Amino acid sequence: MLVTALDLIPPALALRPEAFQALLARPGFGLQGALVIVFLAGISTSFGQSVVLFANHVSPRRFVASLLVQAALFVLTFLAWSATVWGTAFLLMGRPAPFAAAAAAIGLAYAPQLFNFLVLTPYLGNGVGAALSVWTLLATLQAVGVTFDLARAETLLVAVAGWLAAQALQRTIGRPVARVGRWVRHAVAGTTLDPHEPPGLGPR
Q: Which of 31, 60, 98, 201 can bridge 104 by disulfide, Cβ–Cβ 3.0-4.6 Å?
């Protein structure tokens, strides 16, 4: 089950629609495998941001716990983003699709985020992070198009509308949720991390 889902990562990285079609054709493992991919991407993202933990000299136990907590929060953010895209596609295009199917496809589109640890690369970190964000966005467009059977223009419209909706949520009900998330991260790390970190929905 898990191996089959992970086998779809290379074609997803190549932005091949067949990868997302294959995932949607197997609802038994789709969402589970996608959640594993997103969690691993969250671990990679957390490790890429771990310079703050090193700078604060946290203990090994707190370091590992911080990585796991940040990965869990990454998964929750992914689910919120998936719900936003799913709702936007339904409202704008009237294309019904199970939420689990949409989340599975978008989760597979997070495959480029598995390389987020590379942002620690000296001098190249910011460029690598930007490239991975664009790569993930392109994969997400492919996932949305396949899941809802949309043309390119329709997919772009859903993506833009979904992004606008995410920004609105982020600046309203997302603020207290983000504060709770930051508090949990700081409590687990045992030190203050970045109090100005934006919450953010969608691919990073």
A: 31
Rounded Cα distance, 152 and 26, in Å: 24
Is the whole-model pTM more than 0.85?
A: no
User: Per residue in 50-71, pLDDT tens?
Assistant: 666 656 666 677 777 777 888 8
Rg for the chain (alpha carbons), in Å? 17
Rounded CA-CA distance 19/69 in Å is 29
Residues 59-96 as b or e (16 or more Cβ within 10 Å = b): eeebbebbbebbbbbbbebbebbbbbbbebbbeebebe
Number of domains in the chain: 1
| Parent domain of 13 | 2-189
d(C-alpha 108, C-alpha 114), whole Å: 11
Residue 204 lies in a domain: no
**Amino acid identity, position 24:** L
Q: Which two tokens stand for residue 15?
A: 């932005």
